[in-house]
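Service request form, structural biology core

Requester: graduate student, group of Dr. S.
Request type: structure prediction, single chain
Budget code: on file
Notes: please return the result as structure tokens.

Sequence provided:
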Amino acid sequence: MASGRAVALLAAGAIALTACGVEVSVTAERADRLALDPTVVGPGNAPTTTAEPTDPDVTDPGVTDPDVTDPGVSDPPGTTAPDEPATAPPASVPPDPTAIDFGADKPARGYDDFLLAVITDLQLWWDVEYPAIYGTSFRRLEGKVYAAYPGRSDDLPGCGSPSTSYEEVRQYVAFYCGVGDFMVYDDSADGLLAELEREYGFGTIGTVLAHEFGHAIQLRAGNLDRALPTILTEQQSDCFAGAWSARVARGESPVLRYTDADVRAGLIAMTKVSDPVGTDQFVEGGHGSGFDRVGAFQVGFAEGPARCAEILDEPLPLVPNQLTVADLDTGGDAAFGYGDGELLSFLPEDLNLYWDQQLARQIPELDELSLLVVRSLDDVRCSDLRGDLARGAALCASTNEVYFNEPAALDLYRSLGDFSVGYLLGVAWGEAVQIALGSDLTGEDRALLNDCLTGGWVQTVIPVPDGRGFLTLPAPRLEARQSSVSAGDLDEAIQTVLLVADLDSDADRVGSAFEKIAALRTGVLDGTDACLAQL
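Core staff response, request fulfilled:
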């Protein structure tokens, strides 16, 4: 986030190898080990930025107690145990034990049976969906799916070379090769897939393999011969992965089932293999930001594989991922503080400015909100607090104040980046907007509208890019706007949503991660008017 007055997890790549004088396309996910350091993790943090920010001057005249008592700060991102995933497939169709070539001496992994079920079901699913979409029968993988690990005694096939070493696989986590029509994934105990599974659940690995399988579909449909930008084929594979995940979550697979935790893990996987902040999505090998990749996954989940098949000719909108000149020194993260040009100064000002104009027709004189910093729940003096102050911010409707839990917000800022704070404040202002407009929504519906309203505000502070398939943005509404979204900010918002969402879609408290991200994206892509139309 940048003041008007004045980051990435995993690099995803595509490489080209030469075999017998022809170019061989290899689609892959590349591992970046820095991404797994919780002090660095977050799409808004550049991989080279490993130092935490110096504690800011947090003195505020509205707070008399200088001691910081943590008012319910949650575990840092990634430490909350997921819901129990689907660890075993149903008995109606057993997984094909030959679906994966494990090699002669593979150490057993807890997810082995799960991956057998994933590959088995992908083959069964495309047996039906491919002819329905493309009009010809589906040809199953001619090669195999290979598990790669240190010390594997039998060779892995090469993609344009006689063989593939484990070290090469480790760089890319998983890849599909059209020459030989095979897939390989990193099966080492300390590889990225194993770490993602341990931290977030099986759904992360299932999503990665479903994505790579999508490239096999593109080969069969002739789409890898079209010299398309990588970003388009990657969007389509993300969409295919989402469509398959929906099938499993709906209980349509005879081989395995997905729980809500598995779907959430799939969303997390999309954020973990996004382009580094600063990457132009249209360069060779570009896969898109976390916001873009989650969006493609959700389109597939909601609309199915036939919609995914259209993406190459009707691409989904993208958000800018390149840093502006003003952001180069900061990596896109404003300083955490309350002084001129610092995060907690210009964000409240911009939110007040935006909503005053946006609602000018309905409410000629909209009351401004003020930020009240607290460092302990004991400092709260409000009888009608709305929101989750333990997470970072909540609205006191009777006083038009947004209580700001500084310890919790600073924890998020350090873990994810500055727009984790921007998202929380946007939701608090969204609640005030609903009150001002007399909204009678309650519970999950009300929370989801706040997400949408936050996205609508964000849309108007995204720097206008140079076209080429990017989100079509409205003309700037105010010359005096106080902030602009930096590359990676929307990824930070999604990471924050994954923390605050209901873990179970049946909880109906604030909405599941899938629902909340969808609501946020509605605001970002379609604008505030699309959100207000829900009232």
